[in-house]
Amino acid sequence: MTTTLRAILALTLLAGFYLLVGLILAVAVAADALYLTHPSHLAALKGVIVLTVAALALLRALFMVGRKKDGDDAYGRIVSPQEEPELWQEVTALAGAVGTAPPDEIRLVPDVNAAVMEETSWLGLRARHRRMFIGLPLLGLLSRSELASVLGHELGHYSGSHTRLGQPTYRGRVALIRTVGGLGNHPFVQRLFVWYAKLYFRISEAVSRRQELEADEFAVKIAGRRAASEALTKVHIAGAAWGAYGSEYLPLIGPAKARPTELYGGLRHLLNGQRERFLNEANSAETSPYDSHPSLPDRLAAISRLPESPVHVDGRPAATVLRDPAGAERAIEADLWSDEARALPAVPWEELAARALYNGANAEAVSDLLVAAQRINGAPEPTLGGAFAAVAAGRIGELAAGLRDLGWQGNGDDPALVENVLVRAVQGVLVETRRARWILSWEGPITLRDASGAEVEVKDAVSHVIANPAASGELRALLERYGVPAEHRPALLAAQAQGPYRQAPHPQGPYPATQQGPYPQGPPR
């Protein structure tokens, strides 16, 4: 089936969706009218009520789709030709090369992403406003030739009229998803729309995948096969890294009670440190009939079969297309943070990671273990020696019960709970006494290291002691080697979580809003 036929079929199915909604509404109205004029038994009334409620749920879903959300027009920073003349000149020249008009608006956005969209009316027959979105992080990763490839790809969507049907198609997807979600209490009607949605998505996404390959042809025409392939690979790698950055590193902001001085600087370090990991992820990403884009290997293979274009290679950094790349990056970063996050101190990533691991993994473990042991022993104050004495006496069950009273979860396994807290507590004591520190590595996990740089391993020793409480002297000896006395008292108690990194209480929602994905994703076209 050709792309044009699939597009026509997708629009036909979209129209059919609204007809299906209309049919259900008509049946509901008819059933209501029939029951009111000819009342019958209770079972009929229940059926009429269920049908009416389902029809109201459909109406509500469609109404929510039609509403314009706050912030729909606030994505990214608009840059005018006066603000960024070279960027506009580049985009305008590339638009001419692919045979289309330039966008009406260019926005710099915070994602590892590039996209275009076109506001249309009359089901795409009338174009109203074109927007191009350029992810600022990409400019720090690509060369000028590679950037031209990315922009040529996106402008190719305009040239191929792909964006004309993008908005109604996107609205149709949202309408179907909202409709299915809003029918959770009406399983029969929901199953009907789930079946319809799957059919619609399979056809519309097949159209999208074909359009991506067509847009890649424009990328090769503009910048050549090598630049197109390199750009596509880099963007997919960066998309995988951006996802890991958001799930593995940015959550450290909360327990650290601080934000990084350089948000995108950390992303670049992560990319450099684990490039092979993200390349493997990009190449091995699973695909399905519901994907809007072909896989990276499929796209690279398609590019390799295209005729080469004689092009001039421009190896300058893509960021040189901006007047002040560093200033633009700071501005985009500032837009990402919430008001609460802006109030947090800005620290280097190395300091942020050290704070986060101590505050999140060690601080309460130290205080709670020592307090639980104090309650068991009846000691006048919580000390490390008291905790070791409780372990040596084999009072694991009592320690576990005391830790649960302080909020720890252990799934009923007393030794495992005490072992987990004891590992964290020993680590925390070493940090509190500044005998060790959590060290960030962009090439792997954060590790606890002593002043010489050697990794400090405590888990094996703790596991041995939990299995054989009489060996608790091994833990004393380990800490004594670092000069930590058994009389050590915690730097913070459970109600005063401060420790060596004294900060204000953690506010809600300090994280930046991140989106994962290479330029195939982003705002709807």
TrEMBL record:
Its cofactor is Zn(2+). Residues 496-525 are annotated as: Disordered. One of its GO terms (molecular function) is metal ion binding. Keywords: Cell membrane, Hydrolase, Membrane, Metal-binding, Metalloprotease, Protease, Transmembrane, Transmembrane helix, Zinc. Residues 123-305 form the Peptidase M48 domain. It is a multi-pass membrane protein. Its main location: membrane. InterPro entries: HtpX_protease, Peptidase_M48. This is Zn-dependent protease.
